[in-house]
Design goal:
This protein is an all-alpha fold. The chain contains 9 helices and no strands. The chain has helices at 2-11, 26-30, 35-54, 59-78, 82-94, 99-123, 130-136, 146-151, 162-187. 6% of the residues are buried.
Length: 190
């Protein structure tokens, strides 16, 4: 995905200079969709927490993992969906197997996000209509996954064929390339 994002940002002629310093900004070059990085960073975070919780490592290793997790957190915050995905990932990790606690915690997080969105709407002038605010600050809608989680039977879908296992890894980047091409075509970047 980084290769696709870098190629698209260079090809589309996107301005890669920092708006304040006027210098080249490496993070603007990487900018784009990449949920796989967020998932990998969350996996590292959960692995680190799980390793520390099991307590089967030396104090030196524990300090190293804690330091690594501290270094990892800023990357999680700037990754796609990271700031909102972080509490959700921790909720699913700590409450694994207890749907009631997961539902309660996810509902609480989503309620706080909705309250924040409504607070912004009522306190910031010229922010737009309520529809616009609820549409574009929609992280509170993560609550909508709860029925799907509740009804999940714990079994993998499909027949287990190799193509079924790898489908997402091909579909995800290909559909984003198609979206990038449509975007460039419609706004005239060609």
């Amino acid at each position: 995905m980084y290769g696709i994002n870098i190629s698209h940002n260079l090809w589309s002629g996107r301005d890669l200079t920092h708006p304040i310093t006027g210098e080249f900004d490496f993070f603007l070059l990487l900018q784009g969709q990449n949920i796989l990085t967020t998932l990998a960073l969350l996996l590292l975070l959960i692995w680190g927490i799980d390793t520390i919780r099991k307590g089967q490592i030396s104090k030196f290793q524990r300090v190293g993992i804690i330091f690594g997790l501290i270094v990892l957190l800023p990357f999680l915050v700037i990754s796609e969906g990271g700031l909102y995905e972080l509490p959700i990932a921790l909720i699913f990790y700590f409450f694994r197997g207890n749907f009631k606690r997961i539902a309660l915690a996810v509902s609480l997080v989503c309620g706080l996000l909705l309250a924040h969105t409504l607070f912004n709407y009522f306190t910031i002038s010229d922010i737009g209509s309520l529809y616009q605010v609820l549409t574009f600050s929609n992280e509170y809608m993560m609550i909508s996954v709860l029925p799907f989680i509740y009804y999940y039977n714990g079994e993998r879908g499909g027949t287990g064929a190799r193509w079924q296992k790898e489908l997402f890894y091909y579909f995800y980047p290909i559909h984003l390339v198609v979206i990038y091409l449509l975007q460039d075509f419609l706004i005239g970047s060609f």
